[in-house]
Specification:
The chain is α/β, with parallel strands linked by helices and 317 residues long. The chain is built from 12 helices and 11 strands. The chain folds into 2 domains: 2-187 and 254-297, Alpha-Beta Complex (Inosine-uridine Nucleoside N-ribohydrolase, Chain A); 195-229, no CATH class. The two termini are 19 Å apart.
């Protein structure tokens, strides 16, 4: 049984908002091989207050209000907050646990050294703060899985050269990459290949299971929102964050490559990742400094295998 902390910037349940964080939480709860010890929230897809309210509401819908939720960083380490969200009027306000997310992470890992896997599917602010609070935090994790980055491609957006989670707080990503821990990175290279279609969302919406119907409704709305902004030939949306959750118990769905990864923290290339796959020792100026891997980067995915696992799991909730 994998004991995990899930760090999210969850927005499922707010009209016109991304839904993959919500599916990540649902998949973690549906997977019989995962025990969700706590959920932490962070600013990103939405502000942290909204993310916290929506996380508590989603756990209530899933019948898992027993899972503790800790509110985290309300802004990146250095940069201004990127987005502000809103909570629908019919969602009640519920209180998270009193301790801040980073402290809750540290306390749980201290009490269970070597047993806790941290899955971070939002900006890495909380994770970086935990590493600063306790210098032994990173080393005492069983595993760190990050949804973030793009390694073999590019965003092709001058306004956001890095993948959103890393672009949002590149300084936090730098702290994670220099922590001394070899973390698993599930980036856009693979997450854009795993998708839910509008037809699948409508099928979920028609389900008699309350959560499945709710999730299908908001997935269809999100796909419509995406297509209004940037029409695509196939009406679908990517399951970025659930793929990172799946990587915990089904790492075989992905092909991994060791790499030495650096993140750009300057403004012009903010959040861009440089991945050295350590397959050559050649340097044009003959001054190459030998590097060791600080990451395992997902470079290929069994999309059909993931989709089968994901949809089968979600439809049972």
């Amino acid at each position: 049984m994998e004991q995990i902390i899930l760090d999210v910037d969850l927005a499922m349940g707010a009209p016109g908002s991304d839904i993959d964080d919500g599916f990540a939480l649902a998949l973690a709860l549906a997977d019989p091989a995962i025990d969700v010890k706590l959920v932490t929230t962070v600013n990103g897809n939405t502000d942290v207050a909204t993310a916290t309210t929506l996380t508590l509401e989603l756990l209530h819908r899933l019948g898992r209000s027993d899972v503790p939720v800790h509110r985290g960083a309300q802004r990146p380490l250095i940069r201004p907050q990127a987005r502000q969200g809103s909570v629908p009027d019919d969602i009640p306000s519920r209180e998270p646990q009193p301790a801040a997310a980073a402290q809750a992470m540290v306390d749980l890992v201290r009490a269970n050294p070597g047993d806790i896997t941290l899955v971070a599917v939002g900006p890495l602010t909380n994770v970086a703060l935990a590493m600063r609070l306790d210098p032994s935090f990173a080393a005492n994790l069983k595993q760190l899985v990050v949804m973030g980055g793009v390694f073999d491609g590019h965003t092709h957006r001058a306004s956001m050269p890095g993948e959103f989670n890393i672009w949002n707080d590149p300084e936090a990503a730098h702290i994670v990459l220099t922590s001394g821990v070899t973390s698993r990175w599930v980036g856009l290279d693979v997450t854009l290949q795993v998708r839910v279609t509008k037809a699948q969302a409508k099928e979920m919406e028609a389900s008699e299971r309350p959560f499945v119907s709710f999730a299908g409704k908001y997935t269809a709305a999100w796909i419509d929102h995406i297509n209004q902004r940037s029409p695509e030939p196939d009406e679908s949306c990517a399951m970025h964050d659930p793929l990172a959750v799946a990587a915990v118990t089904h790492p075989e769905l992905l092909s991994w490559a060791p790499a030495y990864v650096q993140v750009e923290t300057g403004d012009r290339l903010r959040g861009a990742m440089i991945a050295d796959y350590l397959d050559s020792d050649w340097s044009p100026d003959e001054r190459r400094v030998p590097q060791t891997a600080n990451a395992l980067v997902a470079r290929a995915v069994d999309a059909a295998g993931f989709n089968d696992f994901f949809l089968t799991s979600i439809k049972e909730l």
